[in-house]
Structures are given as C-alpha cells and as structure tokens.
Amino acid sequence: MSQLGLALGSGGARGWCHIGVIRSLQRQGVEPMAVAGCSMGAMVGAAWAAGKLDALEKLALEFTQSQLFSLMDPHLDRGGVLSGKGVETLLSELDLPERIEDLPKPFMAVATDMATGREIWLMDGPLIPAVQASVAIPGIFSPVQLQGRWLIDGGLINPVPVSAARALGARSVLGVNPSGRGGKPIWQANEPDSLLSRIGLEGVRDQLPEALEKLLPEPYTEMRGPSYAEVINAAMDVLTDFVRSTRIAADPPDVMLNADLKEIKAGELYRAQAAITEGTRICDAAEEQIARSLF
Questions:
Q1: Whole-angstrom Cα distance, residue 19 to residue 238?
Q2: Which of 10, 77, 225, 274 is the most exposed place for a label (fewest CB within 10 A)?
Q3: pLDDT tens-digit profile of 151-169?
Q4: Residues 86, 152, 128, 131, Cα dihedral to 10°
C-alpha cells in the first residue's frame, strides 16, 4: 500500500467522478492508504474504505430520475428539498460498518457546524450519520444533528480536504475537485425560446385553435432566467470556488485533479456515468504525475 491519501472534494452529483478516479488508480496499481472526503467525496470515500465501492458504483449507475423524486421532502421547514432519510436509505443498501472506527481503512468525513461555521472532522462514531452530515448541501439536503451539533456540507469550509487527508497520516495527497470549470462560466443564460417550447407544446402549434394562435404572435421569444436549481447550483459554485482556491493556495496537494462537469447540477444524482467517465479520464491523464508524487 502506498502512502498516498485521497482528498475527495465536494460537488454533489459531480462527485460520482471520484469512483472513476479510484478505478483509474487501481488500474495504475496505486492503493491509497487513507481517504478524507466531503459531500459526495465522503460517500465515495466511505464506500472505498469499507470495500464496498463496487456496490456503490452499481447503485450510482442504476440510479434514476424517479428515484430522485422519491427522495423529495415537501416539508421545507426541515431545511432541504431532499430528505436526509432518503440518503440514509441509499447508504444502508451498501451494508457499511456501523461505526467509522470499524472501517478496514482510515477514513474521515468533513462537515460544517451551522452554529459556528467551523470545520468538523468526523473520524469516529456512527458512519452513516457522518456521511449524511457531510453530504448535506444547503438548500438541497436536510442538515443532520450529530454530536450535539447541526451539521451541513463540509464543502462550505474545506471543499477539497487536503489538510484532513494529511491528518490521517498520508505523506502525499491526491486532491480531486469535481467542480473544475474548464473555462466555462458558473452560470450562463439560456438562448431565447418560445413560450410554447417552454411549456412543451411547440410541436402542436399547428393544432391550436385559430383564436389561441392569434394570442401567440410569432416570434414570441424571451431570455429564460435561472431556475431554483440553477440558483442553488451557481451560489454553491461561487462560494466553494473562492474557498477552494484559498485553501489550496495555503495547503496544496501533491497532485490536483480538476473534473470538467459544469453541465451536471449538484442534485442530478442520476447522471453518474458521465461523472465516472470524467473521473477516469482526468486520473488517467495524470498517471505520470501521480507516480512521481509517490517517491
């Protein structure tokens, strides 16, 4: 086993790319000694540390939009549109150990204390609640009460937890950022479109009654503003981009991988295949750099 530690970053659904990164490392013959993760990085890291990465990959690739809708929680007073219970159900399918200290390999989940804004390192105690807390993206997943605190996504304070990986004993650290922009804007306005296309009726324009047709003169176009999901997505990206650049400048990893997945929104958990493929690509491309970092 190498002395390489993984710092698996936040990014919601984009974080499925961590599976591709680990698969590429396996192909390269590199076995990390520990993993620190926040948000989806914590979920993938916990599965890896438990020897359950195959099960998580299968779950991710089979996840559908209808399953995502089943996680919806209409009670917004609970702090998110996706239920924390839904996350617990997903994790329970992996048959993970009950406690972090029971994992075969060193693991740490990074979360944020809502009351103080401080970074919380979860290295012992119940495993699934720790991952739930780290994954609790504000506005999307409900916060988690753990150890007397209300905890949310660790990506708010340490989006790529390099310092946490070093604290686990890693001599060199591979950082993975699922939200590299690749030169793309954080959010871009959509092209003007017709009113009918926006409500899914453009294809039946010729079937509309003449009186209704007169109410919709051509061309009828307007620039569409951002949706709720796009606002949350952009806000999180603005925040985490700033925090990430600050933290990485102060404590850079030995190797940094930036995934180009801006077309995937944080909550689109059913888009795992594209994210995994990108994770494999960026890690394959860095094979020589990774090998040098181990010596």
A1: 25
A2: 77
A3: 999 999 999 999 999 999 9
A4: 110
Q: How far apart, in whole angstroms, are the C-alpha atoms of residue 275 and residue 19?
A: 9
Residue type, 103: L
Distance separating alpha carbons of residues 160 and 77, to the nearest angstrom: 29
Q: Which two tokens stand for residue 133?
A: 């807390």
pLDDT tens-digit map of 45-80: 999 999 999 999 999 999 988 877 666 655 555 555
Handedness of CA 167, 17, 138, 88 (dihedral sign): negative
> Of 183, 192, 190, 174, which is closest to residue 257 (Cα–Cα)?
174
Is this prediction's pTM over 0.70?
yes
Query: From the candidates 2, 10, 24, 39, which is the catalytic residue?
Result: 39
Strands 221-222 and 193-194: antiparallel
The answer to whether 233 and 34 are in contact (CB under 8 A) is no
Which of these is catalytic: 2, 134, 153, 172?
153
Region for residue 285 given its phi and psi (left: phi exceeds 0; alpha: psi -120 to 50; beta: otherwise): alpha
Task: Clarify whether 124 is annotated catalytic.
Answer: no
Residue 115's Cβ-count burial label (10 Å; 0-12, 13-18, 19+) is exposed
Question: To 10 degrees, what angle do helices 84-92 and 127-135 make?
Answer: 130
pLDDT at 222: 54
Residues found in the chain: 295
Rg of the chain, C-alpha, whole Å? 21
* Strand (E) or helix (H) holding 130: helix 127-135
Round to whole Å and give the CA distance between 237 and 268: 15
What tokens appear for 25 in the block? 């490392």
Residues in the chain predicted with pLDDT less than 50, given as ranges, are 183, 185, 191-202, 204, 212, 215, 217, 219-221
3 state DSSP class of 3: coil
pLDDT for residue 218: 53
